[in-house]
Write a structure and sequence with these properties.
By secondary structure, the protein is α+β, with helices and mostly antiparallel strands. It has 2 domains: 38 residues; 120 residues, Jelly Rolls (Sandwich). It has 3 helices and 10 strands. A 5-stranded antiparallel beta sheet has the order 1-2-9-4-7, with no helix packed on it. It has a 5-stranded antiparallel beta sheet with strand order 6-5-8-3-10, with no helix packed on it.
Length: 183
């Protein structure tokens, strides 16, 4: 027969039960950390679940009411510059470089799985007609290549984020150029 407890008495759980409950709580906390917090806050997604749930898009964009650019010199010899460009939801922006005619420009960019419409193009310096030359226009979550500039001018990307969440483009570049940045 079960023992009746008074309203101010509580049963004391066994030590084994306490250790089991503590272990389960730690496992749940670790799962939440790996599956949700790391992808949403830091863009670290070892399982891929954060990307599938759209959490990685939140990582670099927690304060993305307007475009933000963070530039840093990459330690690897492969790239000269690396920049993270935040593109707000339902908006677009351009990021450009000034290249000399026949200047070589290598690039690689990714959004970690979120597709964006983009137009990689160039505009001749001094041209007032509105002319521009598109090198690549499509929707994708990454691109890489090399451009030998056909003319002196501003060359770069227009990215458009058609999603309901901000997206970060991680752009790595190398070559003969001057960074013009957001336009």
């Amino acid at each position: 027969m079960a023992k009746a407890y008074e309203s101010n008495e509580f049963p004391i759980p066994e030590l084994k039960t306490l250790w089991l409950a503590t272990g389960v709580a730690i496992l749940i906390a670790l799962a939440v950390l790996v599956l949700a917090v790391l992808p949403a806050e830091y863009g670290i997604d070892p399982t891929g679940v954060g990307r599938k749930l759209g959490l990685t898009a939140l990582a670099a964009n927690s304060s993305a009411s307007k475009p933000q650019v963070f530039s840093c010199q990459q330690q690897l010899a492969t790239w000269r510059d690396v920049v993270a460009i935040s593109i707000p939801a339902h908006q677009g922006l351009e990021y450009k470089f000034k290249l000399a005619k026949e200047g070589v420009f290598k690039y690689s960019w990714t959004t970690q799985g979120v597709p964006l419409y983009f137009d990689f193009h160039g505009e001749p310096e001094g041209d007032t007609s509105g002319y521009f030359k598109s090198y690549q226009e499509t929707t994708a979550d990454h691109a890489a290549g090399e451009l030998v500039a056909p003319f002196l001018g501003a060359h770069g990307w227009y990215w458009e984020n058609k999603s309901a969440h901000p997206v970060t483009v991680l752009l790595s570049t190398q070559g003969e150029y001057q960074v013009l940045g957001l336009r």
